[in-house]
Amino acid sequence: RKEVEQDPGPFNVPEGATVAFNCTYSNSASQSFFWYRQDCRKEPKLLMSVYSSGNEDGRFTAQLNRASQYISLLIRDSKLSDSATYLCVPTGTGRRALTFGSGTRLQVQP
Amino acid sequence: ETGVTQTPRHLVMGMTNKKSLKCEQHLGHNAMYWYKQSAKKPLELMFVYSLEERVENNSVPSRFSPECPNSSHLFLHLHTLQPEDSALYLCASSQDNRGEQYFGPGTRLTVT
Known about the structure:
Strand content of chain B: over 45%
Oligomer: heterodimer
Structural class of chain B: mainly beta
Largest sheet of chain A: 5 strands, antiparallel
């Protein structure tokens, strides 16, 4: 099983729609999780950190289900500028660094 | 944004050249990373430095040689590269090697 699995998409949604992505992870010892967004040919940028059951920041909500080992990202009222690839990142254990998923691509259409 | 800077932003080199990529972080972090991202591929972790000690080296060919002289600077020395090494090379830093990572803008490398 891959350490991090994400549906690559693309998810094509109209402006104003609500869209959700899921991410499953294999390391049950992961304590923290991050969502990054990456625009085409640019560096990943931190979107949200999740240390407990979830986090909310404006239109973005992340929820963590430790029992099932998945984390979701919900985007409400999608904007054209939300078009990007969203990377799910659980922390490693011991001295291992973060493991980046391959991402889910979102395309918001006018 | 000047948290993590990388130079050069673009680099074209021949297979016999030697060049170095530079990364500098101004965030007071103690861990730094090199990643490779080929076109339409996920990030591949290359090297991790924590407190200036290399703690991960993910089977990277010896033609890539990292150097971390202090906690703010990271270099990637390149020599006798292959065309398949053409990619975006990203540097990142974090406080502790399990914290949020902040990325530089990357160096887009083309090997001819």
